[in-house]
Amino acid sequence: MDIWEAAALLAAGVVAGAINAVVGSGTLVTFPTLLAFGYPPVLANVSNNIGLVPGSVSGAWAYRRELAGQKARVLRLAGASASGGLLGAIALLVLPESAFDAIVPALILLAVALVLLQPRLSRLVAKREGAPAHGGVAAIAAVFGCGIYGGYFGAAQGVLLMAFLGILLDEQMQRLNAVKNVLAGLVNAVAAIVFVLASDVAWGAAAMIAIGSTAGGQLGGMYGRRLPPVALRGIIVAVGTIAAVRLLVT
Length: 250
Hints:
The protein contains eleven helices and no strands. The protein is mostly helical. 82% of the residues lie in helices and 0% in strands. The model has no long low-confidence stretch (mean pLDDT 83). The protein has helices at residues 3-22, 27-36, 41-62, 64-67, 71-94, 103-129, 136-152, 157-168, 173-198, 203-224, 229-249. It has one domain. The two termini are 26 Å apart. The protein is globular, with a radius of gyration of 17 Å.
């Protein structure tokens, strides 16, 4: 790895860490950067996932104030995220690369639509179910599905999580974003363990992304947590749409 490649991966890591802390989809910065330097897709995906784990921890720490009072909620949903992430990581190593090519952009666009409709849908859910504090079985199932997706690829995992959490939980957007950071970080960590044990890793590239994403997570938390709900929802929709388009045209 020469100095230019290291610098590019470091910078990509900073941007990805910041995006992940605020929205999710940082993978759409680091993954193409790795491909541009000639890393094979699976190796790039694995190394990228490992590199972004410290950034997920950093982003969750930056949002620790918004996590206050949500311990029970996080613990209730964490098992679904971890088990989903495990299945998704195994799927990446077992299934052909093209297996999810068609469904991934569709899932992201669905998430964007759900985010746009979230205020109205959440009111309907609250009337029908009494707005359970932890989202009930529906939230666990949604988080489990997001975990599978996140363990497999991870781009826009945060968009999907925010869409479902926003609809199924009666909570402020920034506090849900804090929960999203923890759950997405858990998915990445579980997948990273699988990849370290069962796959090749480009450790130099992963290290550069890790350093950058750690700094980016703090930056994203510093500024993203100040955004009002409407602005945060707008960013999620914009990033999710861009993510889907990029995946469709590649």
